[in-house]
Specification:
Chain lengths: ~425, ~250
């Protein structure tokens, strides 16, 4: 009988012990009190699925390696300071979540890309609600899938472009979500290379040294409702196909080599409901095929769209062109793109049958823009009376501008391009 | 000095200068009131300054010279040197027409948009007035026939605001394979209308549209040195035709 009771007791103890093990452990890291006062120490004491809660304070640590699935939560924004000595977090296991931290001062190395948080060959990582200050790279996702990076604030403060890294750097990853981040002062706000099936939405990328968003060799991605403002060279999207750009705003990217949206070798993509305002060149296209530009607003840009002759089968329909110096510019005499149903502020035709569509076709390219594409020096004649007169003559007797570059059904009234959907 | 005063008040009393003043004020007022964007206002005014200001100056100065031919002849009978009469006419006319421009366009512009571009617009417009008055005097001294004189000054205006730019564009077109940007800078310097236009454009946001290819323009003409260079050119441009006309007038058999 005693044996049975002893056995039952043992089993009960085992059960309790087991149940303790199954229940995730919470470890509190704090600078005050006798408990654990370092993140690194805390990480040695955990099992998979545990939670580390870091209390407010300054933790001078770098080279923190995460090998076990863990949730790290900062309370009242504790500061993890790398003291410019190196990378701060390196994640090489899946299922890790980091939130509520201030991660700062990675320093700069010309050998390694030092990051606030780096992930390597993992999946299901969540990085949310952190602040990255003065990091070379803030978040570096290398070969990691299903990562979510949201609600972070990233602010770099590099001395020059050579010493700067990117805000969110994605490399060879699949199905990532980059939402609601605010990124400024980095080299590229968001840089993606070989990333697939990902969504970038509701981010605000501004005053970065080079591009607000830089996209290379990424197929099947979407970017939605982002705001790209005042970046060194705007946004560059290159060598990709099946990209959807929806309801983004590109603003104030002004400078000798700044573009609102630079598209190079992009195929089968959609540019819908975007808003381009005050960019030197709102859209610059080179070697692009089968892109649909629709329901976009082009307002007060130097050039609204610069289409190089290497582009074909693109559709530009139902856009508003308001107050741009040049609406369309091209460098070839052959145009293989379709322009239809746009509203051109410079259009001065009439509509006799009152169907809202102008009865006279509109040619959006001016002679001067043709000249300046072929011989850039002639831009210095801008605003000369001679040039104005040439444009007027060309309108009456077309000779230089491409025959096919014509909108046969220009709208009489501005099109309402408010995005009908909500969210992403 | 007395002569300058006399001619100046005579000019101000004439309806023409007043009308010109009103016209400019109307343009400036409408642009400032109807457009909310600074650069748009400045660009519209730039068009006025490189087109209307030279035209009005050149025509008015020519007509004025012919109309005061008898007055000048009477004056010459007095012990006054030709040089003094000529200079007085020039100064009085510059003050009247240029003053109208500054009062109607320059001052309102500087009040509403006090920046460098507005200042340059004012400087450019004033110099263009002087330059085209000098050119008008030159063509008026050139021939005794009023119709011919007005025709000549119109041709000069047409040449500087239209034909010259066309020729430069043609040159660019034919030599676009060569590095011609430096030559273009030199060519632009030879036309006061282009000098003032480029001087203003380089200080506007628009200059970014010149891009890499226009590096020579933006680096040189857009710099402080370039601005001083442009203003220097405008000064030279107002002095040279003036002295040329003065020499002709001094030697002319009236």
């Amino acid at each position: 009988m005693v044996k049975i009771i002893k056995a039952a007791f043992l089993i009960a103890v085992l059960f309790i012990a087991c149940s303790f093990n199954i229940e995730a452990k919470q470890i509190i890291v704090s600078k005050s009190g006798a408990g654990i006062s370092s993140v690194k120490t805390a990480l040695t004491k955990i099992a998979g699925g545990d939670t580390i809660i870091i209390s407010a304070g300054i933790y001078k640590e770098h080279g923190i390696k995460i090998h076990t699935p863990v949730t790290i939560i900062g309370k009242n924004f504790p500061v993890i300071d790398g003291e410019s000595l190196g990378q701060i977090f390196t994640i090489d296991t899946s299922n890790v979540s980091i939130s509520g931290l201030i991660i700062q001062n990675t320093g700069f190395s010309s050998m390694d890309d030092l990051a606030g948080i780096r992930t390597q060959q993992v999946s299901h990582i969540t990085i949310s609600g952190n602040k990255f200050l003065n990091c070379c790279y803030a978040v570096f996702i290398a070969a990691s899938d299903y990562c979510t990076i949201q609600n972070n604030f990233i602010k770099g403060n590099p001395a020059n472009q050579q010493m700067a890294g990117n805000g969110i750097h994605g490399w060879q990853s699949i199905n990532c979500e980059i939402n609601h981040n605010e990124i400024t002062g980095q080299r590229d706000g968001i840089y993606f290379e070989f990333v697939q099936g990902s969504t970038i939405s509701n981010n605000h990328s501004y005053e970065n040294m080079r591009y607000g968003l830089h996209f290379m060799f990424n197929d099947n991605n979407r970017f939605v409702q982002n705001l790209f403002e005042n970046n060194g060279s705007g946004v560059a999207v290159m060598f990709s196909k099946n990209i959807t750009m929806l309801n983004n705003t590109y603003r104030d990217n002004w400078g000798a080599s700044a573009y609102g949206l630079l598209l190079k070798e992009i195929n089968d993509s959609y540019v819908l409901y975007n808003h381009f305002e005050k960019n030197t060149a709102a859209v610059y296209m080179e070697g692009c095929n089968r892109i649909v530009f629709s329901r976009n607003d082009f307002i007060q840009n130097g050039w609204a769209i610069r289409v190089q002759a290497s582009c074909m089968n693109n559709t530009i329909a139902f856009n508003n062109f308001l107050g741009n110096t040049f609406d369309i510019a091209t460098n070839g005499s052959l145009s293989l793109n379709v322009y239809s149903g746009n509203y051109w502020e410079q259009y001065d035709g009439y509509d006799l049958n009152k169907n809202g569509i102008g009865d006279v076709p509109f040619r959006p390219v001016s002679v001067f823009s043709m000249f300046s594409e072929n011989m850039p020096e002639s831009m210095v004649m801008m605003r000369s009376f001679c040039v104005t007169l040439l444009d007027k003559i060309e309108k009456v007797i077309p000779g230089v501008i491409p025959e096919d570059l014509i909108d046969n059904s220009p709208m009489m009234k501005k099109i309402n391009n408010a995005y009908p959907g909500s969210g992403t | 000095m007395k002569l300058v005063k006399y001619i100046f008040f005579d000019l101000v009393r004439s309806r023409f200068v007043f009308f010109y003043f009103l016209l400019l004020l109307l343009f400036t007022g409408t642009f400032i009131l109807l457009q909310d964007d600074v650069s748009k206002v400045q660009l519209s005014l730039l068009n006025i300054i490189i087109l209307v200001v030279p035209l009005v100056s050149v025509i008015f100065a020519t007509i004025h010279w012919y109309n005061s031919a008898e007055f000048i002849e009477v004056l010459l009978a007095q012990p006054v040197s030709r040089k003094r009469i000529f200079i007085s006419e020039f100064v009085a006319l510059s003050l009247a027409v240029g003053g109208a421009f500054i009062l109607a366009t320059g001052i309102p512009l500087l009040i509403f948009y006090p920046d460098l571009v507005s200042l340059l617009l004012m400087i450019g417009g004033f110099f263009l007035t002087i330059i085209f008055i000098a050119l008008a005097f030159w063509s008026a001294v050139f021939t005794r026939d009023k119709a011919k004189g007005i025709g000549l000054s119109l041709v000069l205006w047409l040449y500087f605001s239209l034909i010259y730019d066309g020729l430069v564009l043609m040159l660019m077109f034919n030599f676009s394979d060569y590095p011609i940007d430096k030559i273009v800078v030199v060519l632009l310097s030879l036309n006061p209308v282009d000098v003032s236009r480029v001087m203003v454009l380089m200080k506007m946001e628009m200059s970014a549209m010149l891009g890499y290819s226009g590096a020579v323009f933006t680096d040189f003409l857009g710099s402080k040195v370039g601005m001083i260079y442009s203003i220097g050119l405008l000064i030279i441009w107002s002095i040279v035709p003036f002295f040329w006309a003065l020499r002709k007038f001094s030697k002319k058999d009236l």
